[in-house]
Structures are given as structure tokens and as C-alpha cells.
Design brief:
heterodimer, A: 255 residues, alpha/beta, Elongation Factor Tu (Ef-tu), domain 3, Rossmann fold, seven-stranded antiparallel β-sheet, seven-stranded mixed β-sheet, 5 helices, 16 strands, globular, B: 303 residues, TIM Barrel, eight-stranded parallel β-barrel, four-stranded antiparallel β-sheet, 9 helices, 32% helix, 21% strand
């Protein structure tokens, strides 16, 4: 798939809570086909304190209107600048980048697991699975009920399970402690979130022999496989998260 | 039409803009963004005799106007290169230059000999300046005598165009340029990255697994420019300027300071099309200023 550099236009910048916002960006031409799990490299203009682009999972795609949605957590100087962008401003992006989640067989029981900003690629995946006649269970974890995001959106595409660390909503505890992991039998888990969380899910999946793919969030410079900075250790040696990933089968990863 | 062509020894370049080793993969990775035949050349990812895993993650830290890396020469070794990569890049219509690295003088000469056998590789860049490997690399390039030995040894086995890539992590870089010239190098390229580091205050640890790394990007441009100026005044062979070049104006600064050509590196990470924009920017500058041949500008600040 050909990668391109384009100036998109900000249509909406919607603040979800103190940590998260959604950018809806308009392509200047018909969108290139994107698969769930792929990402985009965003140039941060008007920022003296940052230098490199920032990679973001594609949260959703609207081909009819040529819009990409990005769900972004304010985590540092770059994302702070992006959170202040106004409709009408340009956003220079490189896309589509990386590989994607593999597509389940019809009839597979699929669980999507997302923690915090790791929920970002799962909405697009959930909707895509629906189009393929698969209704996944969706397990999302947050710190507390005020941090819950995109619940309504996700609810359209699967059965929802929520965990919060303080128990203010849903199951109290960490994602990997949620009882559905043991009570329900899954053929496939697709997971994205903080590294300690995905490592726990990965070891659970290995133990139970469940097919499991995780999307990694390694630091990147180029995003196109030339700088070799974002590597992860796999059974094939060091490979680039940006080109061989960001989605990996947990059996490939040496953690 | 303005002239952008130049030569290193007998090797012609269609323009003075080359992509730097470690920032353009094997060229193929950039094909979605640029037509490689529009470039003066590409210097492919640093090669070693044996495969190298490189340093553990994290290997990169963003810094003010630049970045640190400690990749550590990750590559699959010369055999893999000959078998699988060379066939894919040998017919690219640009100068494909291989950057070679070693732990010992023997490593360098063995590698130079093998690359010398590849018809479509007209030049090597002798990397004696990688800051991210424990053995070899910068250890050669920061010592006058070992620099002399490795350049002499490689020159004696490699008959095509030999470019020596210099380390900025020395007191008198012009001495290293002089040695390269004395030992028969056809050109020098400089600078490799500057040794630096960063600390993650929340983890209370170095930001890089290798603790120190190589600084690149606009942050190093003034230092690189000064070193290019110093070396260009000292040697008669062509100097290739490298260090934080983001646009045509940056490239022109290097040329006016004495560089015959430039390499574009970290800029590619932010804009993979930047080498093309730099070529057309140089062209426009020449046209606007009614200069027919960019070589008139080489070292013009000294005149």
C-alpha cells in the first residue's frame, strides 16, 4: 500500500475530558484504504519544543466523507499543541502506516481489550468486525468513571465490559483481573494499552492458548522503517514496530 | 538550466544532494515518497561483516531541535546484503554508496573487498565515527594513528571511490580530514553524530538503553558547519557536509562554507520528501541569483 504525505484539514477538535480529545481531519482527496490497527504520523507545526512527528492509531475512518478520526491523549508537549488546534487549520500527515490486526474467521468469538489511550485503534476494529458479521466483546479499562471515553461509540459494535481502578464504574480492578477473561471462552484477543497491561494479557493468552494480537506504542522517529529506533525484540530479532508492527502476535514477541 | 552536477574522482553525481546512512534504509523505503533517480546518491544503512542486533530499545530520545539515537548499527550482515538487498538496489538509477563498519581493521578490509566486487556499488563510505558501538566505530575515528591505519588498509584493497566519514567528537577535525586525504581517500563526509545523552527524570534513568547516543538534527548544524569549513580549508579532496540540514538554505550554507555536496539525514524522518525539496530549492536559488553552476558557490565565503 502506497504511503503518502498530505495536508489534511481539521474539521472538529472535540475535548472528551481533561486528558483526551478527538481530531476529525479531512483528506484533500479520496482516502487511501486503511486497515484497523494502522497508524498515521502527524507533524506538529507551531511547536518550538518538539521536533519529530507523533504517531497515532487511526480511531475511525469515514470513507464517504474522507475523514479520519484520531483519539489522542494529552501526554506531552506535542499532544498539548495538537489539543489546541482549531477547525480549518491544516494538519500534515503521513499515512497509512504499519500493519493491521488480522481478520478473524466468521464465527470466532473475539474479545477486544483496551486500556486508556489503547482504546484508540479498537473502535475502527470493532466497526470493521461488525461489517464482517462478527460482534466482539469489548473490555475497556480506565482509572475511574470520569476517565471513561467513547463508551457510547463502542456500544454500537459489541457487548461492553468496563473496569475502573477505583470501582467507580463497572468492575473494580485492573483489566486483566476482569472475570470475563476466565468465564467466557474466546478464540481471539485483540489488545492495545500500556505495556504492563498488554504483557499481562499476552501471558494470559499464551497460557490459555488463545490467539492474541497486541498493538505496541513504541517511541518512533520516522514511522517508515528507516531510523530503526522503534524496534521490539521478536523471534526474528529486532524488528521495527512501525513497519513490521504495530500489531504483533504475542507468540512473536520476546518479553 | 543551471548545473548541479559534480564529481568525486571519476564518479559523477547528477546533483549534490545525497541521503545519509541510517536515515534512508536501502533507498527502497523512500520510494513511496521520492523518485530515487532524482537524487545525487544514497548512502545505505551501515553494514558490518556479521549481522548485528543493535542496542536494546529505547534507542531514541527527542531533544531540543534534534534527537539522540543509539541504534548500534543494526543490520543483517554482508552476506545477507549481497544475497537479498544488492539485487533489489543494484539497478537504482543513482549512486548507491555502502557505509561500512568494523570492529577491527580486518573487518573493514574484508568488507571493503566484498563490496568492491559488487559492480553497481561505485563507492563506499568508511564509517570510523559511529558513536553507538562498543568496539570499533568511533574508537578508530577519534584517534589519529588508528584512523590512518584503517584508511590506509582499506585504500590498499578498495580501488573504487572511497569516502571517509569523520567523527565530530575530536579536538582538531581538520587533522583527521588531512589524514584521510594523505592516505588516498577520494572525499570526506562530515559530521557523524555528536555524542550526547538525555535523562528521563520520571524514571530517574538515562533515556537511551545505551546511556549515550548520537545527537543529530538542526541542533548540531552550527557545529557541523564550522567543522566542514575547517576541513574544507585544509584538504583539496571534496568535502560532503552533513549535520542538521533541513532545507535548501541550510544546504547552501554548507556549500558556501566549502562543501561540494551535502547529505540529508534526520530531516527525512520529518519529511521524507525533503531531499527533493532541497534539490529544487538550490536550483531556485541559483536561478534567482543568476548563477549557472552551483560549484561557483563552493567555499565562496573564503573568497
Amino acid at each position: 500500500m502506497r504511503k503518502v504525505i498530505r495536508d489534511f484539514k481539521i474539521l472538529f477538535n472535540t475535548r472528551l475530558n481533561q486528558d483526551y480529545f478527538i481530531l476529525e481531519i479531512l483528506s484533500p482527496e479520496p482516502l487511501i484504504r486503511i486497515m484497523p490497527g494502522q497508524f498515521i504520523q502527524v507533524r506538529i507545526d507551531k511547536s518550538k519544543d518538539t521536533f519529530l512527528r507523533r504517531p497515532f492509531s487511526i480511531h475511525d475512518v469515514d470513507y464517504e466523507n474522507n475523514i479520519i478520526k484520531l483519539l489522542i491523549q494529552i501526554a506531552g508537549k506535542g499532544t498539548k499543541v495538537l489539543s489546541e488546534l482549531l477547525p480549518g487549520e491544516n494538519l500534515n500527515v503521513i499515512y497509512p502506516l504499519g500493519n493491521s490486526f488480522s481478520i478473524p474467521e466468521l464465527g470466532e468469538k473475539v474479545l477486544l481489550i483496551g486500556g486508556g489511550s489503547g482504546t484508540a485503534p479498537l473502535l475502527f476494529l470493532a466497526r470493521y468486525l461488525n461489517e464482517k458479521k462478527i460482534t466482539p466483546d469489548i473490555l475497556l479499562g480506565f482509572r475511574n468513571k470520569y476517565r471513561i471515553i467513547e463508551l457510547e461509540e463502542f456500544s454500537k459494535y459489541g457487548k461492553m465490559y468496563i473496569t475502573t481502578e477505583d470501582g467507580s464504574e463497572g468492575f473494580q480492578g485492573l483489566i486483566d483481573e476482569h472475570p470475563i477473561l476466565t468465564s467466557n471462552k474466546y478464540d481471539r484477543i485483540c489488545c492495545c494499552g500500556p505495556e504492563p497491561m498488554i504483557k499481562k494479557i499476552a501471558s494470559y493468552a499464551r497460557l490459555m492458548n488463545i490467539f492474541c494480537e497486541v498493538s505496541l506504542e513504541n517511541l518512533m522517529a520516522c514511522g517508515i522503517g528507516v531510523c530503526l529506533c522503534c524496534v521490539v525484540k521478536t523471534t526474528q530479532g529486532h524488528v521495527c514496530t512501525c513497519t513490521d508492527g504495530p500489531v504483533f502476535n504475542v507468540n512473536q514477541l520476546i518479553w | 538550466m543551471v548545473n548541479l552536477g559534480f564529481k568525486i574522482g571519476t564518479l559523477s553525481f547528477r546533483n549534490p544532494v545525497i541521503t545519509a546512512s541510517g536515515t534512508c534504509g536501502y533507498g527502497l523505503e523512500l520510494q513511496d515518497f521520492i523518485e530515487l533517480e532524482t537524487l545525487g546518491g544514497i548512502v545505505v544503512k551501515g553494514l558490518t561483516l556479521e549481522a548485528r542486533e543493535g542496542n536494546p530499545y529505547p534507542r531514541m530520545a527527542e531533544t531540543p531541535s534534534g534527537m539522540l539515537n543509539s541504534v548500534g548499527l543494526q543490520n543483517k550482515g554482508v552476506e545477507y546484503f549481497e544475497k537479498y538487498i544488492y539485487p533489489q538496489i543494484k539497478d537504482l538509477n543513482t549512486n548507491v554508496i555502502v557505509n561500512i563498519n568494523g570492529k577491527s581493521i580486518e573487518d573493514y578490509t574484508l568488507l571493503a573487498e566484498r563490496i568492491g566486487l559488487l559492480d553497481k556499488i561505485p563507492a563506499i563510505e568508511l564509517n570510523i565515527s559511529c558513536p553507538n558501538v562498543k568496539l570499533g566505530g568511533m574508537a578508530f575515528g577519534t584517534n589519529i594513528e588508528s584512523s590512518r591505519k584503517v584508511i590506509k588498509a582499506v585504500r590498499s584493497v578498495y580501488k573504487k571511490i572511497l569516502i571517509v566519514k569523520l567523527s565530530p567528537n575530536v579536538t582538531n577535525i581538520e587533522e583527521f580530514g588531512k589524514i584521510a586525504e594523505d592516505e588516498g581517500a577520494d572525499a570526506v563526509s562530515l559530521i557523524n553524530t555528536l555524542l550526547g545523552m538525555a535523562v528521563d527524570i520520571y524514571k530517574r534513568k538515562p533515556s537511551l538503553s545505551g546511556i549515550t547516543g548520537g545527537l543529530s538534527g538542526p541542533a548540531i548544524k552550527p557545529v557541523a558547519l564550522r567543522m566542514v569549513w575547517q576541513v574544507a580549508k585544509t584538504v583539496k579532496i571534496p568535502v560532503i557536509g552533513i549535520g542538521g540540514i533541513m532545507n535548501a538554505n541550510d544546504a547552501l550554507e554548507f556549500i558556501m562554507a566549502g562543501a561540494s555536496a551535502v547529505q540529508i539525514g534526520t530531516a527525512i524522518f520529518i519529511d521524507p520528501e525533503s531531499p527533493l525539496k532541497i534539490i529544487s530549492g538550490i536550483e531556485k536559488f541559483l536561478t534567482d541569483n543568476r548563477i549557472n553552476d552551483y560549484t561557483e558557490l563552493i567555499g565562496c565565503i573564503n573568497k
